[in-house]
Amino acid sequence: MKTVDGCIVKSGMVYRSAAFNSVSRKGHAKAWTIPAWSREFLTRRLGIKTDLDLRNDAETGGISGSGLGPNVRWIHISGLYPGSVGGSGSPTGTMQKELAVLLDPANYPLDFHCKGGRDRTGALGFVALGLLGVPERDLYLDYVWTWDMPDPAGHIGDWDAMIAGLAKLEGNTICEKLETLVRQCGFTDADIAAYREAMLEPLADPPVHFHDTALTEHVAPTCSAEGRDVYSCTNAGCTVPPYAVTNTLPVVEHVWGDWTVVTEPTLGQAGLRRRTCSV
């Protein structure tokens, strides 16, 4: 992901997921854990060494270690749902515990998760990326793309509560408001700077160009000719020739006007009438 100040969020440092295991309890599915090949990939290939588990006590069921095995440090914190982040009377003690793990590079590579990897995980992911300066639109997309449930609308209220709560914090941008939240949890500007230094890297040279397109030409179709919409990149320094995408608009149906008599008919001679398409 790109940040507003032109950096890139490093890969291989912090991951998010759903739970790695589940416990068996009355009325719920049988206990399960991820297969050995998945543990092998996550621990050896990705090198995950810290498992931040945001499930509550009932969901963890008294387990004492990570589903990734004994060599992965398991940290259990009953995580905040989105509606509790930044809201009035927000339990900053819980957020402080989550951030203490997230902001410490000694825990990387780190994976954080709740049960399904959506609400509690999405809330911490929103804070983690927003604090790095990821654009607000990308934060929203990152959050809602995890809603693979049948009824995502049922979770909008929690989301709205989080955004409304953050809006009341000091700062002009979402990044600045999250900085305020982090300071309220007892962290310093030096802690935030160290987190960003560990998690961000400059764009490659030459810099990666992200096209930002806008409609720059519109030719309406007629009944006899196709039209077109041309979307061009509006970013300064775009590649030459400038990036543009043309969408062809199909010929439209005739829109006929009223008949007009050109020549009246006579005995033994047909008349003539005409109508014209107005498109």
Key words describing this protein structure:
single chain; 279 residues; 4-stranded parallel sheet; elongated
Nutshell version of this structure?
Helices cover about 30% and strands about 20% of the residues. It has helices spanning about 35-45, 55-60, 90-100, 120-130, 135-145, 155-165, 175-185, 190-200, and strands at about 5-10, 15, 20, 30-35, 50-55, 75, 110-115, 200, 215-220, 225-235, 245-250, 260-265, 270-275.
From the spread of the alpha carbons, the general shape counts as elongated
**How big a fraction of the residues is strand?**
15-25%
Structural class: alpha/beta
Averaged pLDDT, please? 85
User: Major sheet, described briefly?
Assistant: 4 strands, parallel
The percent of residues in helical segments reads: 25-40%
Give the terminus-to-terminus CA distance: 46 Å
| SSE string, helices as H and strands as E | EEEEHEHEHEHHHHHEEEEEE
The whole-angstrom Rg is: 29 Å
DSSP summary, beta strand count: 13
Summed up, the helix count is: 8
Q: Give the low-pLDDT segments.
A: none
| Widest sheet: strand ordering | 2-7-5-6
What does this structure look like?
The protein is an alpha/beta fold. Helices cover 29% and strands 19% of the residues. The chain has a 4-stranded parallel sheet, with helices on one face. Helix 4 runs antiparallel to helix 5 and helix 4 (119-132) packs across helix 7. The model has no long low-confidence stretch (mean pLDDT 85).
Outline the secondary-structure elements.
Elements: E1 7-9, E2 14-17, E3 21-22, E4 32-33, H1 36-45, E5 50-53, H2 57-60, E6 73-76, H3 92-102, E7 110-113, H4 119-132, H5 136-144, H6 156-167, H7 174-184, H8 189-199, E8 200-202, E9 213-219, E10 227-233, E11 244-249, E12 260-263, E13 272-274
Parallel strand pairs: 2-7, 5-6, 5-7
Antiparallel strand pairs: 1-8, 3-4, 9-10, 10-11, 12-13
